[in-house]
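Course exercise 7: structure representation. Students receive a sequence record and must write out the corresponding structure in token form. The form below is the worked example handed out in class, using Alpha-galactosidase (734 residues). Read each field label carefully; the graders check that inputs and outputs are placed in the correct fields and that the protein name is recorded exactly as given.

STUDENT ID: A-19
EXERCISE PROTEIN: Alpha-galactosidase
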Amino acid sequence: MGIFYEESGRVFTLQTRHSTYQMKADGQGVLLHTYYGEKTDNTDLSCLIARGDRGFSGNPYSMGGTDRTYSLDTFPQEYSCFGTGDYRISALKVENADGSRAVSLRYAGHAISKGKYALPGLPAAYGTEEEAETLSVDLKDEESGVAVRLYYGVFEDLDVITRAAEITNGGEEGVTLLKAASLCLDWQTGEYDWITFHGRHAMERNFQRTGIVHGLQSIGSVRGASSHHYNPFVMVCGKNTGEEHGDCYGFSFVYSGEFLMEAEKDQMDQTRLICGIHPDDFAWKLEPGETFTVPEVLMAYSGEGQGGVSRIFHRLIRDHICRGQWKHSRRPVLINNWEGTYFDFTGDKLVDIAKDAAKLGIELFVMDDGWFGKRDSDNSGLGDWYPNEKKLGCTLKELGERITALGLRFGIWFEPECISIDSDLYRAHPEWAVAVPGRNPVLSRNQLILDFSRKDVQDYLIERISNVLGSAPITYVKWDFNRSICDKYSHALPADRQGEMAHRFVLGLYRVLETLTESFPEVLFEGCSGGGGRFDAGMLYYTPQIWCSDDTDAIERLQIQYGTSFGYPVSAMGAHVSAVPNHQTGRVTPLATRGCVAMAGTFGYELDLNKLTEEEKEEISRQISTFKELYDCIQYGDYYRLASPLSGSCTVWETAAPDASEALVSAVYHHVQANPVPVYVKLRGLSEDASYRVCLVGKTGETILSGAALMHGGLAIPPAKGDYCSWQIHLTRI
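STUDENT ANSWER:
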């Protein structure tokens, strides 16, 4: 059992294999946070909360206002509220019917149950009664009737605790939620850094480590999606924490829309982290009896540094976020025609590419943008999800059958959330587009947004996409979203509910995806938003892999995939080998290096095979064979970052089988040097008392070394032979 309740002190202690999380309902009914970190026993740690008379920190009236050592402004709390004495960043802000913005929550009960709670209409980690337990804690504001039920899911073996909440208006008048966060977490002591992942289109999830200082720091998105610019995953760690040592905490927001993660170091040197839906464009009306459910946050602690937290999240996402038959099935090696043809293709041209692909061992052909409506550029056609049979030279079914007759699976591209002004759908339903009445809308990529907050729009897209998927032998869908949302306004919502539009949009997206993935369980859905613009745990609940970035340059991808690896597993990262010179950077890298980098993801190709030499085709065939042979080790192995792309001459990473039976070490040189300094790395995840056969992939010869020698002495990476050289080193236990 991972959840313990000590009734006399009203202390809740959540235990995982290596961590402890504790809270306490004190004598005033305030739910105080007492501890989160390395595993300890069930001792009440509220003794660590320092009380004192703090100037300008008020005292609750319930205590007569005379105990000047008791103040919500300085106490660590589980779910802080705005307006009643805590001046720090808060989790909950409510506008009452009289216009006041005060709410004060007090403990009202709890329940413990087997299994993991679920959230209606929202993605969340899942677990059986043997895998997880749930604690729910009820809090209530007696004056307004607003009630909050906090949810805690405990995956004891995984070292994971999840957080979510339901907010109910139990009063007699309507209230408006102005901020409803999913997580409030306080650290009473310690000096911390936080690690965030910033970026832009085609350069996502750049690692950034900064100190948490006095004042407010935040990352977030008001773009309608989690965005290329900040990822809804952060780490908080000690000043001396490194890749494999020290205290580290990870937090992943299971949500694909607008979010805010805030950190504050307060007057008492305490640190607070808040995570939830971004409040800037959020105002949710709750009539009496109505409930609002906030999205989930995944939490993990490790004493083994950033790598320890990463490996926890990798297992959690692979096994308890991703769903369906593709969760653990081997994903097919694919080829996508986009960078090979862009909009310029016919059915015959696609079949010619597919013929070469089949000969090389590729298993899935994906037809990208341009197959529907009037769509020969990005100026028109979005929303008209009817195959352009004139362009294809056949029906979609006939094209799919020609592809599958070659022994390949057949996949297709959609961008359902967007619409072109030059489209039949827009001409029929201009009110379905997101736009502010009386204002000219902002265009991006020559397109507008479809209002997914509307059920009629959701129903239309479900029907239209279902018809397409049912009309041909389609087993893969690339689900794209190529712009940010602005001009937020829904013609289906009244004026006083426009603040609900952005969240309702995400709920609508989730409803469409849930319906389609249930209706077509055999289809592998891959998420995409101009590459990695919506790379989050929420999307991975519906699409078990996401196109990592539109930047396919192998050297750029080192940094992108490095940053992504902190919170997401290899099996989630869409990564392809593309043509050179690279379409984004103009860089020329060896085919072997492009393959090495793409194998640190779902693996595929994005080029015109008809333009390759026979030698290059032979190399691709070897790459595919290697990937298939090492698939389990790559996709399900424990991931170790051995040398960073942010410094030094070489990036090195390792995936090791959980049973230590084999490992793959991959190394890519950033540039070639004269008289180079040797590169050494110490491996991880091996058995110290075992011997390993060490082989360069694709080369003859081997070396026998012990696990102890490899982990403590290290491994020498062969020197670079030309620009952007790469090596793959396979180790097998003897």
